[in-house]
Amino acid sequence: MTNKPLNDTIHRVTERVIANSRDSRAAYLELMEREGDRQVNRGSLSCSNLAHAFAGAEEDQAAIMAARGPNLGVVTAYNDMLSAHQPYYRYPERMKIWAREVGATVQVAGGTPAMCDGVTQGEAGMELSLFSRDTIALSTTIALSHAMYDGVALLGICDKIVPGLLMGALRFGHLPAIFVPSGPMGTGISNKEKQRVRQLYAEGKASREELLTSEMGSYHSPGTCTFYGTANSNQMMMEMMGLHVPGAAFVPPGAKLRQELSRAATHRLAAIGKRGEDFRPLSRVVDEKAIINAAIGLLATGGSTNHAIHIPAMARAAGIRFDWTDLAELSSAVPLVARVYPNGSGDVNHFHEAGGMGYVIGTLLDEGLAHADITTVWDGGFESYSREPGMDGDALTWRDPGPSGDTEMLRPASGPFQSDGGMRLVQGNLGRACFKSSAVERERWTVEAPCRIFEDQPSVNEAFRKGELDKDVVVVVRFQGPRANGMPELHKLTPALGVLQDRGYKVALVTDGRMSGASGKVPAAIHCTPEALGGGPLAKLHDGDIVRVCAATGELSTPSDLDSREQSPAPDPEIGMGRELFAMFRAGADGAEQGASPMLAMAGL
C-alpha cells in the first residue's frame, strides 16, 4: 500500500498535542516504568497470598502455581440486561480453554457495573450515567490490584463502559491489554420507520403500545444496538487505536468468525506480555498518535458527540492533553466518509457489509489522513486494520475489503460526503460548545431567535405539548452539567424539537448537558462549558434574549449584556435512585472539555 504523506493539519495538531502533553506524558511513562519494574512477581508472593489467588482456579491451579506461562486477567462488564453485554456470559470459560492452547491461563480479575443509557434515558438513573464511567475505571483498578496478571482482556462495549475500562487499565499500562467485543444484534425495522413512530408519539398521534412495538422491532436480541451511537463509536475507536484484533468491531454474536476473533485475541494477549519477544504494554500503545487516530475516526464516520468528553478523559489517563480546539481543527481536515444512522439510512450491519472499518481505515491511510505508524496490539501494525476478517474453512484470514459496497453509506476519502468531519466548536459570550454539523442540513447551521429557558427535560416537553414552542426558538436547557446533576443525556428532547423543525420553525438547542450519538437533525450546541452551575453564562440568560448559534462561523452568543446580570439560582440536586451517593462525584467533577472526570481531577491528572 502506498499512502500519501500525512496531512499537514493532522501533523500540526499532533505536534501541538505532543508539546502540550510533554510533562504530563513523561510523568505517566515514568510511573509505568516504575510500576513495571516493581510489580510483584507471582513467584515472590507469600504462600498465603498465592493460596488465596488460585484457590478457585481448579484445573489451572498447578499451572498458575508453577508460573508456567502468562496469567491473563479478564475484566468483564457482563450483565444480561444490556443486550450488548449478554453474550459475554460464556466468554471467560471459553477464554480459559483458548489460553491453555498457548500455555497460558485466564482468571476473571473482576467485574464492573454496566448501565444502559437506553433504559435510563429521560429517567432519574441517567444522572448516574456519566459518572458510571469513573466508577468503572475505579472498578477496573480494583480488579487489577492483585498483582497476579501478565495481561488484561477487557470485555465491554457500551457508552461509558469502554472509556471507563480504558481509563482504569491505563493506570496499569505496564501490562498489555486487548479489548474483546461481542458484536451488534441483527438489523430490525428500518430506522426511518422507527423515527416516524417516535415523532407521531411525541405529537400524540401514536399510542404507547404502538411505540413499544416499534421500539421492540429495533432492539430485539443479544448484541449491540445497531444505530451508530456511542457504543458503536467505541468499537470504531478501539479499531482506530489498534486495541482490537483487526476487524473485530462489527461481527455479530454467535458467528463462527466472532468466536475465532475472540480466540485470536486471547492468543495474542498471551504473546505480547513482558515474558515474550513482542512486549506491547498498553502505555506504549495508547500514545498521542493513537488518541489523534481515535478522534480522526470519530470525525470521519460521524460518530457520537459523547466522545468530545470521553476522548479528553481517556487521553488524560495516559498523560495526554487533548481539547476541543484540537478536535475542531482536525474536523476541518478530516472528510466525512461514512453515513450511518442517525446520519444516514443504514445501520452498523449495513456499514460492516459495505466494507466497514477495514474500508474506512484503508481510505484514510491512502489519503494521509491517519497515523500509520502507531503501535497496535496486533502484529503487522495499523495497516493490518485496513483489511477485513473472514473464515477460510476453519482458519481465520484477512482480505482487502475492496471498493465500497454501498456508496450511499461509505465513500472514499478522495470523494467524501462532505469535506470536513462535522464536529464543530462554537463559542462566544455563552461559552464553548460542540455542534455536530454532520447530522444537520447545512441550511439549518445558523439559528438566531429568542430563547426559552428550561431547567429540565419534562418542562420542555410540557411546553411543547401546550404549543408554547410553536415559533422560531432557541431552547436553552441549563443546570445539566457534570457538577449540577451529573450531565445526563437529553435524548428525550429530540422528537419534540424535530416536530417543531418539521413544522417549519427555526429551532436550536443550547445546553450544558449531553446529547448522545443518537443526536438527530436539530441544530444543537451541547456540552456547553463553563456549565451554568458555578458561574457559567447560561445562568444569566432570560426568556426572550436573542441567542445566535452558527456552525458556519463557530458562534454561540447573545447581544444581551450578561455582565450586568445576576446568576439565576440552581435548583437543588434531586435525591433518590442513589443520586445523593454521587454528591462527591458532582463536587469533584471538572469541565466537559477536560473530560468531566472527578476521578482524574481529584487525582491531579
Give a description of the structure.
With 605 residues, this protein is α/β, with parallel strands linked by helices. The protein folds into two domains: 8-38 and 69-185 and 218-393, no CATH class; 423-571, IlvD/EDD C-terminal domain-like (Glucose Oxidase, domain 1, 3-Layer(bba) Sandwich), CATH 3.50.30.80. The chain is 37% helix and 13% strand. The protein contains 23 helices and 14 strands. The strands form three sheets. Strands 7-8-12-11-10-9-13-14 form an eight-stranded mixed beta sheet. A four-stranded parallel beta sheet has the order 2-1-3-4, with helices on both faces. The chain has a two-stranded antiparallel ribbon with strand order 5-6. The protein is globular and about 75 Å long. The mean pLDDT is 93.
